[in-house]
């Protein structure tokens, strides 16, 4: 019989709508103003700190919803933003600089919804408020590091091949390593040996006698820049996790830019302190045989560099870098057997092998830990960004007692707080290339709340206008279309809440408004086709059947073309454009489901399979 649907189809559609409704429910619970407190500089968030803060809030007449420890961080929820701001002042004053106290917004989803994985939609900065940073990666520093590594590698390779050289020197200003030999035969042998080990090296003859310039090929330069950018993105993600921000966004922009968005965070100073830290460590051997006095007068022996310790003591170190901070996988502060602060370090497999090889023949020699930090200067580069100045100091040097591996420790640190700070920085990751924040924007929670209210108002007025039009023009069939439209909105919100990477932005809300208008297009096509079938003299059941079947091809074609445009926008767009494309694409798919499948079930339920003389359409 025409227009009769089996029971399983009704159960399937109702099940899909119920699932969407359940996963859309968390969006009805507003987020709580909250404080997120984590230990990053010499402190540990303990139960005692939690209890002390809770008492301090009570004494200040601040009504906290809850103050709990979660995964080593303290989360305090409040009823109003006024209480939140007042509580931050109390927490900052009580805890000092050893802790990060960040303003945040915490989801208030009930436990039973959390148990099934239901959570509210992720909101962008324009709706939730938060901090936006645009960071520039200093690619020259990454290339300079590779040139310095090339210099040390060339020296080691030539010694291994027993080829005597006069000088091997990295020229960072011109971007090459200058190799000077004693005669033409040695120069040819050196060039052949180095080329054999690395075929991507580019050798250029020099005007100097028996000298050649070795530079990095264009392909390798691009690889270095890509690697530096991707590694920095990974490290910044780790640092964001140290702050404890929910749903952060860290992504690349262009060839040397990184975008960081921290929704809900309002304390930019603390965020910048963690994200903008550009410090790292290098481990080098101390040259105790060289004349330190001559070095202080400017006569620095080849293969060495002059450094100073924190107390101003000069130290001559070998140029060869034994290990850099990029191989550190773990770091923790503790005390040695003499109750002096120390940092225990764990390395990855490659770093452990490098350090083991470097210290194999260096037992009894002194190894120095060099702390390197980049700070912006008053000078600007060609792009108008401040030029970073490299500041280096020796934080400790100790005698190598045995061959080192993947686990070792550094001592001679001034205070436990400094040891904790250093371990936190190393644990979060040492940046492969320095970065600096070149753009900073803060969107307050009040502005985000206003954007949500305006966007919701636009969606509701759009729905009301469509609902009224459909009822007036299509009567009872218009009511069916309106039910499908409401179901479509529930599906959009439910799907957006279920997709992990989907973020709702203000342009995304515009996409929902557009979808509301487009969602009834399919029903308009179907209903007009049913009218035409009735005018052609077909029976009611035939008109319903042919109306849905023959309109389906047109509906599919029109929506597929729009979906392709949405996919293109998502693929090439950034930020707000992606937000618009996501809601548009989801809205197209859900509108096809509700307008074609959903309304057909309702029409068949009320008018299908019966002897009906006319339709209220």
From TrEMBL:
Origin superkingdom: Bacteria
Topology term for the membrane: Multi-pass membrane protein
Location of the Protein translocase subunit SecDF P1 domain: 229-287
InterPro entries membership: Acrflvin-R, SecD, SecD-TM, SecD/SecF_arch_bac, SecD/SecF_CS, SecD_1st, SecD_SecF_C, SecD_SecF_C_bact
Compartments, as annotated in UniProt: Cell membrane
Membrane spanning stretches: 7-25, 454-474, 479-502, 508-530, 551-573, 579-603
GO BP term (any one): protein transport by the Sec complex
UniProt-recorded Gene Ontology molecular function terms: protein-transporting ATPase activity
Domain Protein export membrane protein SecD/SecF C-terminal: 435-596
GO cellular component, as recorded: plasma membrane
Domain SecD export protein N-terminal TM: 2-103
UniProt keyword terms in alphabetical order: Cell membrane, Membrane, Protein transport, Translocation, Transmembrane, Transmembrane helix, Transport
SecDF P1 head subdomain domain segment(s): 305-433
Subunit structure: Forms a complex with SecF. Part of the essential Sec protein translocation apparatus which comprises SecA, SecYEG and auxiliary proteins SecDF-YajC and YidC.
Function: Part of the Sec protein translocase complex. Interacts with the SecYEG preprotein conducting channel. SecDF uses the proton motive force (PMF) to complete protein translocation after the ATP-dependent function of SecA.
Cross-referenced HAMAP family: SecD_B (MF_01463_B)
Family: Belongs to the SecD/SecF family. SecD subfamily.
PANTHER family reported for this sequence: PROTEIN TRANSLOCASE SUBUNIT SECD (PTHR30081:SF1), PROTEIN-EXPORT MEMBRANE PROTEIN SEC (PTHR30081)
Name of the protein this chain belongs to: Protein translocase subunit SecD
Native source species: Rheinheimera salexigens
Gene name tied to this protein: secD
């Amino acid at each position: 019989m025409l227009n009769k649907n089996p029971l399983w189809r009704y159960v399937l559609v109702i099940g899909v709508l119920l699932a969407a409704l359940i996963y859309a429910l968390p969006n009805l619970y507003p987020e709580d103003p909250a404080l997120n407190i984590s230990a990053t500089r010499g402190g540990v968030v303990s139960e005692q700190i939690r209890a002390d803060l809770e008492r301090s809030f009570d004494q200040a007449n601040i009504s906290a919803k809850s103050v709990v420890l979660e995964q080593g961080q303290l989360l305090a929820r409040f009823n109003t933003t006024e209480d939140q701001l007042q509580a931050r002042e109390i927490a900052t004053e009580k805890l000092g600089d050893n802790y990060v106290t960040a303003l945040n917004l915490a989801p208030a989803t009930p436990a039973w919804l959390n148990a099934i994985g239901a959570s509210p939609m992720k909101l962008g900065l324009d709706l939730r408020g938060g901090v936006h940073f645009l960071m520039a990666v200093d690619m020259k520093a990454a290339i300079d590091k590779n040139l310095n590594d090339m210099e040390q590698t060339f020296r080691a390779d030539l010694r291994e091949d027993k080829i005597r050289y006069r000088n091997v020197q990295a020229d960072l200003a011109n971007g090459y390593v200058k190799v000077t030999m004693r005669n033409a035969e040695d120069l040819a042998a050196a060039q052949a040996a180095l080329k054999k080990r690395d075929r991507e090296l580019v050798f250029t003859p020099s005007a100097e006698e028996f000298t050649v310039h070795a530079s990095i090929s264009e392909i390798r330069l691009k690889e270095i820049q890509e690697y530096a950018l991707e590694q920095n993105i990974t490290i910044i993600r780790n640092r964001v996790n140290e702050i404890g921000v929910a749903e952060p966004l860290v992504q690349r922009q262009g060839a040397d830019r990184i975008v960081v968005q921290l929704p809900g965070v309002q304390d930019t100073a603390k965020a910048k302190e963690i994200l903008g830290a550009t410090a790292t460590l290098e481990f080098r051997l101390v040259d105790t045989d060289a004349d330190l006095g001559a070095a202080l007068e400017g006569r620095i022996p080849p293969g060495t560099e002059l450094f100073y310790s924190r107390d101003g003591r000069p130290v001559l170190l070998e140029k060869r870098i034994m290990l850099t901070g990029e191989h550190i996988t773990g770091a923790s502060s503790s005390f040695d057997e003499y109750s002096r602060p120390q940092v225990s370090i764990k390395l990855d497999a490659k770093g452990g092998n490098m350090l083991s090889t470097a210290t194999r023949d260096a037992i009894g020699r002194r190894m120095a830990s060099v702390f390197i930090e980049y700070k912006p200067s008053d000078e600007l580069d060609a792009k108008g960004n401040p030029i970073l100045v490299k500041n280096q100091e020796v934080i400790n040097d100790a005698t190598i007692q045995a061959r080192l591996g993947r686990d070792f420790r550094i001592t001679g640190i001034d205070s436990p707080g400094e040891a904790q700070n250093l371990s936190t920085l190393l644990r979060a990751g040492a940046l492969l290339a320095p970065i600096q924040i070149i753009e900073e924007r803060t969107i307050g929670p009040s502005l985000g709340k206003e954007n949500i209210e305006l966007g919701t108002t636009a969606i509701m007025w759009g729905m009301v206008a469509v609902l009224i039009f459909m009822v007036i023009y299509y009567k009872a069939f218009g009511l069916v279309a309106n039910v499908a439209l409401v179901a479509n909105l529930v599906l959009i919100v439910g799907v957006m809440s279920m997709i992990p990477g989907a973020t709702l932005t203000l342009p995304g809300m515009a996409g929902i408004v557009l979808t509301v208008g487009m969602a009834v297009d399919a029903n308009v096509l179907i209903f007009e086709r049913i009218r035409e079938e009735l005018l052609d003299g077909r029976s009611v059941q035939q008109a319903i059947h042919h109306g849905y079947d023959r309109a389906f091809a047109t509906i599919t074609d029109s929506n597929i073309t729009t979906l392709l445009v949405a996919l293109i926008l998502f693929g090439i767009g950034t930020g707000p454009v992606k937000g618009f494309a996501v809601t548009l694409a989801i809205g197209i798919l859900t509108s096809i489901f509700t307008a074609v499948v959903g309304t057909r079930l309702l029409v068949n339920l009320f008018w299908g399979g019966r002897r009906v003389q006319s339709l209220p359409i």
